[in-house]
Design brief:
alpha/beta; Rossmann fold; 2 domains; 8-stranded mixed beta sheet; 5-stranded mixed beta sheet; 17 strands
Length: about 425
């Protein structure tokens, strides 16, 4: 029966022995040699045999630093103009942005506040006016206040698929070029910008330290992925267009109920402003100091990952090959010392668990349980390949992982 269970789930086991010092050292030497050529991209490393050699803990630390420094060097070489011109481009789309700094830069880098303008399905000049207003709408005690101009003038201007890519690249750039602290990146927005926050906060939750929705509409989005993202919700009592006031109150209650069921998650702040309509006379600015109390938890002890919108291939320490992503899929996972627990899945065919020594001891066996049954017990190797997989396409130094275990689940619901 147990053998049948193992076969049923087709688990890709890694029966890895302790890293051989000579091979681990050789991998680092080969990595240094490759990086000394000043490559224009790190993707070429994927074809190198040495990237799959198991690394010791100390060599993994070295490899991580080497890869990050090489990545930062490439960003500095290739993307200075993007930040200087305040403009990102993708095919025929452009996203201008403006930013200013407040206060003194902390030792760990600036906080970054991405503030989304309203408007939406309106003529260009209306959205331009909304953007110009958003640039000066809020102020900070410390940080970079950045206002992007939406690339389109559609009603869903802040939650079209290209927005995820633009914001990922923007954050990746600013971590290197403006010394932004990746653990303190925030998103907020008003009206149509609030619509965007409702959508982008859950589906990009592992990017943000906190999020604030002002005077927007959720359009039916699920809040489940906000488990580790503090979320502020504010709307005027009389903001009846599209039932923003009623739906806002309903979503505020959803957040409270989620927090009640999971006291360590779903931190929230909500306020329905008495007597206010769509414009809250800047009373909504009280969300900003509330948000500033939080930093991102990159390695949460529990993850709730609900796929929505454009396919996403990673979420904190979980990942899924992009070709296997199913819209509406759901994974609930937790970690405790040497154990990873996959507590529930829906519409999932493949799941990758990413690990490193910040989470547990990779020199000792790691146990993965699926629905309460042990399906993996071994020592997953630290490799340059895994570091690359988690670095490329994200560019976040705190979300580089050293090892991973791939799980096939053919009986996905």
């Amino acid at each position: 029966m147990w053998a049948f269970f193992i076969l049923l789930f087709s688990i890709s086991f890694y029966f890895a022995a302790s890293p051989e010092p000579a091979k681990s050292s050789s991998a680092i030497t080969s990595l240094k040699t490759f990086l000394d050529t000043n490559p224009k991209s790190l993707t070429a490393l994927k074809d190198k045999d040495f990237t799959t050699l198991p690394l010791s803990k100390s060599d993994a630390v070295t490899a991580r630093k080497l890869l990050w420094n090489a990545h930062a060097s490439i960003i500095k070489s290739d993307r200075q103009k993007e930040i200087k011109d305040r403009l990102l481009k993708e095919n025929n789309l452009e996203m201008p942005f403006d930013f200013k700094t407040f206060g003194k830069k902390p030792d760990k880098g600036w906080s970054l506040w991405i503030s989304l303008h309203g408007g939406g399905g309106a003529p260009k000049q209306v959205n331009d006016s909304q953007w110009n207003n958003q640039k000066k709408l809020y102020s900070l005690d410390e940080g970079i206040y950045l206002s992007p101009r939406a690339p389109t003038n559609t009603w869903n201007l802040w939650h079209e698929p290209h927005i995820d890519r633009f914001f990922n690249r923007l954050i990746e750039d600013l971590i290197v070029l403006e010394e932004v602290n990746p653990e303190r990146v925030y998103i907020l927005g008003y009206s149509a910008g609030g619509d965007g926050v409702y959508q982008l906060a859950p589906r990009m939750a592992d990017h943000w330290a906190a999020a604030a929705m002002m005077a927007g509409h959720p359009n039916g989005v699920s809040l489940l992925s906000l488990r580790n993202l503090p979320f502020a919700l504010q709307v005027g009592e009389n903001d009846s267009a599209y039932n923003r006031n009623k739906v806002g109150a309903e979503y505020a209650d959803q957040l409270k109920q989620l927090h009640k069921l999971d006291r360590n998650g779903y931190q929230n702040f909500s306020k329905i402003h008495p007597g206010k309509g769509h414009w809250m006379n800047l009373e909504d600015k009280e969300a900003l100091p509330w948000m500033a109390k939080f930093s991102r938890n990159s390695l949460p002890d529990k993850i709730v990952w609900k796929q929505s919108g454009p396919p996403n291939d990673r979420f904190y320490w979980l990942a899924c090959p992009i070709q296997n992503v199913n819209n509406g899929s759901l994974v609930t996972a937790s970690r405790n010392k040497q154990q990873i627990n996959i507590d529930s899945t829906e519409k999932i065919s493949k799941l990758i668990v990413r690990l490193d020594d910040r989470m547990l001891d990779l020199d000792s066996p790691v146990i993965i349980n699926y629905l309460g049954k042990e399906i993996y017990k071994s020592i997953p190797p630290r490799t340059i390949t895994t570091m690359l997989n988690s670095l490329l396409g994200r560019g976040d130094p705190t979300l580089i992982f050293d090892a991973e275990v791939s799980l096939d689940i053919p009986t996905a619901k």
